[in-house]
Amino acid sequence: MKTFLEEVNERIGGVPIQRCYHCRKCTAGCPLAFAMEYNPNRVIKMIQMGMKDEVLNSSTIWLCASCETCITRCPNEVDIARMMDVLREMAIREGRTVKEKNILAFHQAFLNSIRSRGRINEPFMMVDYKLKSGDLFSDMGLGINMFMKGKLALISPKTRDLGAVKTIFEKTRNL
Amino acid sequence: MKVSYYPGCSLHGTAKEYDQSVKAVSKALGIELSEVEDWSCCGATSAHSTNFKLSVALPARNLAAVEAGPQKEVMVPCAACFNRFKSTQYYLGHNEALKREIEGVIGRPYRGDAEVLHPLGIFHDRVGLEGLASRVVKKLTGLKPVSYYGCLLLRPPEACRFEDYENPYMLDGILTALGAEVKMWSYKTDCCGGSLTISRTDIVGRLVDRLMTMAREAGANCVVTACPVCMANLDTRAGENVRLPVFYFTELMALAFGLAGPADWFKLHNTDPTPLMGGLGLV
Predict the structure, then answer these.
(1) Do A159 and B47 lie within an 8 Å CB cutoff?
(2) Element at A165 (helix H, strand E)
């Protein structure tokens, strides 16, 4: 059976994360580190130590905003941003309890909009997000304000060949 | 010049002033845009955060549509779409097996030879700063912007291949050519929090407040961006005591070129720029 480290490295498909020598440039430059449970370089160490539950159940993997500052500055070319994507995918696949459930709810609402329309319709996506997250009332004032300005279009053009988009979702579901 | 045009979802919604200003400026500069045939969403952060193959297949469908169209160069104004297109070309260009697999997923050939361009690069490199300056009929005198790039146009650099990724300069050059007094600051490429704006508004508020505070410290009276996500966050999430007006760079180009539209676009902003622009006699 593969170790957690081997599994993560295989999914990243690039430089093995054990090249990290913990200079902490990634953490120093990470704009979200202040809000994370574990700093980016610490996650690397935890993966090496086989701490799968702690990593996949952590808030860190969801709070990464994919700004890519870490990989840009890493002297060893460890793709930490891609590593965070991989960890999120693994957490979803394994049906883990997601600590930042609203962040995942947003991603799901976003992708639902693409699947059903080919494109994002912002008002519909927001309603879907609010139903998924249970966060019904935040941004109501802002939303009304934007609607009054005509920035939120209730009717927006869809992709005509919706079948092609749906096929992409179907075919990538279990890859 | 003629190029394909991929607006992406934001430019047909909350970033419609970006869409309209890109089109107005392109027309004035003789750049003809033809929308990519039956385009679909690039997948943005949500696709790559949850499903890698989906995150390359969605852009690949659009890139294949560009490749099949008359113009192989495609203008992509949204930084998020630009990033996903460039990343997809990078991944598929470095992995033949993945490319073949994704061709199967999208059900059409993908060659990888579309050229993905951002309007910032087109205006800066193809038209040139002198060409832009010669178009100016109303100098943006008194406007003191800081250039704000955020993440997605620049990183990761090996995929984006777009200007200096730690200290980009094109936006500064364009704004200077328009007659603005560009202020230097160290936060050009810092993150605004991106899509966390909906799910973790508290975090984005903190990041945006820091950006605004630093822009003020640099002596700026506004912030200029080239990304709909940055625009949405800077324009709506800054605290009342630190907020500054935020513009798409194309809105300011249209204003300086004397084109119709800016006054209407400014009304769409959450942080009203008219007191600043009125005070400077620019609208």
Answers:
(1) no
(2) helix A162-172
Query: Does A175 contact chain B (CB < 8 Å)?
Result: yes
Q: What is the pLDDT of residues A50-81, one digit of tens each?
A: 999 999 999 999 999 999 999 999 999 999 99
Q: Is the pTM of this model over 0.90?
A: yes
Is A168 an interface residue toward B (CB < 8 Å)?
Answer: yes
Q: In what order do the strands lie in the sheet with B246-248?
A: B145-148, B222-225, B246-248
Residue A175, pLDDT above cutoff 90: no
CATH architecture assigned to B2-117: Up-down Bundle (1.20)
CATH 1.10.1060.10 residue window(s) in chain A: 4-93
Domain with CATH 3.40.50.11810 in chain B: 129-279
* Residue of B60 and A148 predicted with greater confidence: B60
Nearest Cβ partner for A146 among B14, B48, B52: B14
Question: Does A140 lie at the interface with B, CB-CB under 8 angstroms?
Answer: no
Considering the domain A4-93, what is its CATH architecture? Orthogonal Bundle (1.10)
For B85, residues 6+ apart whose C-beta sits below 8 A from its C-beta are B6, B42, B59, B62, B63, B74, B76, B116
pLDDT at A144: 86
